[in-house]
Design a protein that fits this description.
Blueprint lengths: L11 E3 L12 H13 L4 E3 L4 H4 L1 H11 L1 H4 L3 E6 L1 E2 L12 E2 L3 H15 L4 E6 L8 H14 L2 E7 L3 H8 L6 E5 L6 H4 L2 H8 L2 E5 L14 H17 L3 H10 L6 E4 L4 H8 L8 H12 L5
Length: about 300
C-alpha cells in the first residue's frame, strides 16, 4: 500500500516515546498499543532509525515477528540521515547528517531487519544534510524503489528550496516539519504553500508545541492561548489538545499531526478531534493569541 492523500490516516502514530526514550513498553504492551491504534483506523506508524538510540524499531519489530497478520494492515514510515553518537553505533564519532547513498542504503537494510519486514511504505530523509547531492540521493532512492524495499519517499525538516531541489530529481510525497500553535514557521515560510502547489502531504511533528501549553502558564503568550482554548472548549465540549489538533487540520494543505504519546487513551481522545471544525474566525483567534497582537 503506497501512501496518498486519499488513504493516509488522519492522525499518524509517532513511535519515538514508546521505547527507551519514553515509556519503555514491553513487547506485549507494544502489541496492545498497536492494536488499539489500528482499531481506530490509525494505521500509519512513524519511526526513525535513531529512536531509542537505535532500539525502538527492533522493539516494534518483535511484535511484527510474532504477529505477521499485522504488517499488511498497517503502513510503516521510518527515517534515516541523522548519525547519533551511541554505544549502538560505535563508529559515529560526532553527531552529523549523512545522506550519502551508502548511508541511505545501509540504513534501510538495517531498518528492514529490525522492523521484521520486507518493505517500508515510506522512507523519509530525516534532516537535510548540508552536503547532500541530489543526483546521488535520487539514484539510491530509485534503487530502493526498484528493489521493492521502499514504496514512497519523503523528507523531514527540509526547507521549501531543499524540497524543490530533491523533488526535481525524484518524486517526494511529504515533508514532515514542526508545526504547532507555538511553531508557525510553516505557515509563512512557503512550506505549506509548496505542499498545496504540489498536492503533497504535510505532516506535523510536535503538533502540541512540546506540551508547554498544558502546564502552569509560563508566559503571557501561553496564557493568552489557554484563555482562547478555554472559550472554545466550552463551545465544542473539547479538551485543549483536541482543539489544537483541529486547529492544524483546518488548514487547506491537509496537515496530518504526528502524535507523540505512548498512552492509548490519549490517542483515543485525539481521535475525537476529527469531529471538530473550527470557524475561520476561531482559527484566527488562536493565531492572534499566539502572536500576542492583532494581525497586521
Amino acid at each position: 500500500m503506497g501512501l496518498t492523500k486519499e488513504n493516509i490516516s488522519p492522525l499518524i502514530i509517532g513511535t519515538m516515546r514508546l521505547g527507551t526514550w519514553g515509556s519503555q513498553l514491553s513487547t506485549s504492551e507494544y502489541e496492545k498499543f498497536i492494536e488499539g491504534c489500528m482499531e481506530l483506523g490509525l494505521i500509519d506508524f512513524d519511526h526513525a532509525d535513531i529512536y531509542g538510540h537505535y532500539t525502538t524499531e527492533e522493539d516494534f519489530g518483535k511484535v511484527l515477528k510474532s504477529r505477521k497478520d499485522l504488517r499488511e494492515k498497517m503502513r510503516i514510515t521510518t527515517k534515516c540521515g541523522i548519525k547519533l553518537v551511541s554505544g549502538n553505533r560505535p563508529s559515529h564519532k560526532i553527531k552529523s547528517y549523512d545522506l550519502s547513498a551508502k548511508h541511505i542504503l545501509e540504513s534501510v537494510d538495517l531498518s528492514l531487519k529490525y522492523l521484521q519486514t520486507d518493505y517500508l511504505d515510506v522512507l523519509l530523509l530525516h534532516r537535510p544534510d548540508y552536503l547532500f547531492n541530489p543526483h546521488e540521493i535520487a539514484e539510491a532512492l530509485s534503487t530502493l524503489k526498484q528493489s521493492g524495499k521502499v514504496l514512497d519517499f519523503g523528507v523531514s525538516n527540509f526547507s521549501p528550496s531543499q524540497f524543490d531541489l530533491l523533488h526535481s530529481f525524484i518524486p517526494l510525497i511529504t515533508n514532515q516539519v514542526e508545526i504547532s500553535i507555538l511553531h508557525r514557521n510553516a505557515f509563512v515560510d512557503g512550506t505549506l504553500d509548496q505542499c498545496q502547489k504540489l498536492n503533497i502531504i504535510p505532516t506535523a511533528w510536535s503538533p502540541l508545541g512540546g506540551g508547554s501549553l498544558f502546564g502552569k502558564a509560563a508566559s503571557p503568550e501561553i496564557m493568552a492561548i489557554q484563555k482562547v482554548l478555554d472559550t472554545l472548549g466550552e463551545k465544542y465540549n473539547a479538551a485543549h489538545d483536541q482543539l489544537l489538533y483541529a486547529w492544524l487540520r483546518k488548514h487547506p494543505a491537509g496537515i496530518v499531526p504526528v502524535l507523540g504519546t505512548s498512552k492509548l487513551e490519549r490517542i483515543q481522545t485525539a481521535y475525537k478531534a476529527l469531529d471538530i471544525t473550527l470557524t475561520h474566525e476561531e482559527w484566527y483567534m488562536l493565531w492572534e493569541a499566539a502572536l500576542g497582537r492583532e494581525i497586521d
